[in-house]
C-alpha cells in the first residue's frame, strides 16, 4: 500500500544521502523513480540533488507555486509509470504541495518519501515540515549528534564568529559554514550568548 513518508532531522544527518540510497535501491530493481527538489536550493545546480559525501543525481526542480501532482502526472505521461517519488529539502514545501503529495499517494497509488528539516534556526517549524508532520502516514527521525555528544535536534544559524544569529529570513540557503546541528540544551546556551561554536568542530555523521 502506498504511503506518505516524512524522514526528518537536524542539519548534517545524511538526509540527502539516504534519499539517494533509496533511489538507487529502486533503480537497482528496475523500478523508475522521480526525485523532486526545490529550485531555490541551487547549491549543486538547479535540478541536481547532491549529498555532502559526493553522491548525486538529477532531479526535477520545482517552484513554490508548482502543482506537484500535475508535475508527476506529466512525468508519467512522458516517461511511463513511477514506482516512487522522492522529495529532497521537503521543509521548503508549501501547505498545498504537501496536500498534492498526499494525492499522489491516495489517487495515483505511488509512495512518496520526503526528506527534510523539522525546524529552522529559531526552533520553529517550516511550513512543509508542519504539514508533513500532520499528514504523513509514517514519520521517522534520521539521527545525528551534537558536538556535546548528545543527540542533535536543533539547528543554529551562525555568523563568521560562530555566534548564533537570532533574526533574519527563515530560508537562507547554506551548508556547514552557516548552520550547525546541536542538542536542545546547546541551542539554548548559544542563543543566550553563552559561547560560540566553530562549524568545523562539529563531528559529521558517517
Write the layout of secondary structure elements.
Layout: E1 4-9, H1 15-28, E2 33-38, E3 48-50, E4 56-58, E5 60-62, H2 68-79, E6 84-87, H3 95-106, E7 112-117, H4 127-135, E8 138-141, E9 144-145, E10 151-152, E11 154-157, E12 179-182, H5 184-191
Parallel strand pairs: 1-7, 1-8, 2-5, 2-6, 6-7
Antiparallel strand pairs: 3-4, 9-10, 11-12
Helix pairs in contact: 3-4
Provide the descriptors you would attach to this structure in a database record.
6-stranded parallel sheet; 5 helices; 206 residues; disordered C terminus; two-stranded antiparallel sheet; alpha/beta
Approximate shape:
elongated
Mean pLDDT: 85
Whole-angstrom Rg? 17 Å
Number of strands: 12
Oligomer kind: single chain
How many helices does DSSP assign? 5
Low-confidence stretches: 200-206
Largest sheet: 6 strands, parallel
Task: Give the neighbour order of strands across the main sheet.
Answer: 5-2-6-7-1-8
Structural class, by secondary structure, is: alpha/beta
Share of helix, binned? 25-40%
Pattern of helices and strands: EHEEEEHEHEHEEEEEH
Explain this structure.
It is built from five helices and twelve strands. The strands form four sheets. Strands 5-2-6-7-1-8 form a six-stranded parallel β-sheet, with helices on both faces. Strand 3 (48-50) and strand 4 form a beta hairpin. With 206 residues, the chain is α/β, with parallel strands linked by helices. Helix 3 packs parallel to helix 4. Residues 200-206 have low confidence and may be disordered. Helix content is 27%, strand content 23%.
Amino acid at each position: 500500500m502506498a504511503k506518505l513518508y516524512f524522514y526528518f532531522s537536524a542539519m548534517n544527518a545524511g538526509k540527502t544521502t539516504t534519499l539517494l540510497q533509496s533511489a538507487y535501491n529502486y533503480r537497482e530493481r528496475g523500478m523508475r523513480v522521480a526525485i523532486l527538489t526545490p529550485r531555490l536550493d541551487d547549491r549543486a545546480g538547479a535540478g541536481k540533488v547532491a549529498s555532502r559525501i559526493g553522491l548525486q543525481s538529477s532531479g526535477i526542480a520545482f517552484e513554490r507555486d508548482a502543482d506537484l501532482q500535475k508535475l508527476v502526472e506529466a512525468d508519467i505521461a512522458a516517461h511511463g509509470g513511477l514506482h516512487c517519488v522522492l522529495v529532497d529539502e521537503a521543509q521548503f514545501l508549501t501547505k498545498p504541495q504537501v496536500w498534492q503529495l498526499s494525492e499522489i499517494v491516495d489517487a495515483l497509488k505511488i509512495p512518496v518519501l520526503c526528506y527534510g528539516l523539522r525546524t529552522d534556526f529559531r526552533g520553529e517549524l517550516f511550513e512543509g515540515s508542519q504539514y508533513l508532520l500532520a499528514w504523513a502516514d509514517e514519520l521517522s527521525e534520521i539521527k545525528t549528534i551534537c558536538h556535546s555528544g548528545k543527540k542533535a535536534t536543533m539547528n543554529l544559524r551562525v555568523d563568521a564568529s560562530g555566534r548564533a544569529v537570532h533574526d533574519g529570513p527563515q530560508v537562507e540557503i547554506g551548508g556547514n559554514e552557516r548552520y550547525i546541528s546541536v542538542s536542545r540544551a546547546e541551542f539554548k546556551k548559544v542563543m543566550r550568548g553563552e559561547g560560540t561554536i566553530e562549524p568545523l568542530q562539529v563531528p559529521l555523521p558517517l
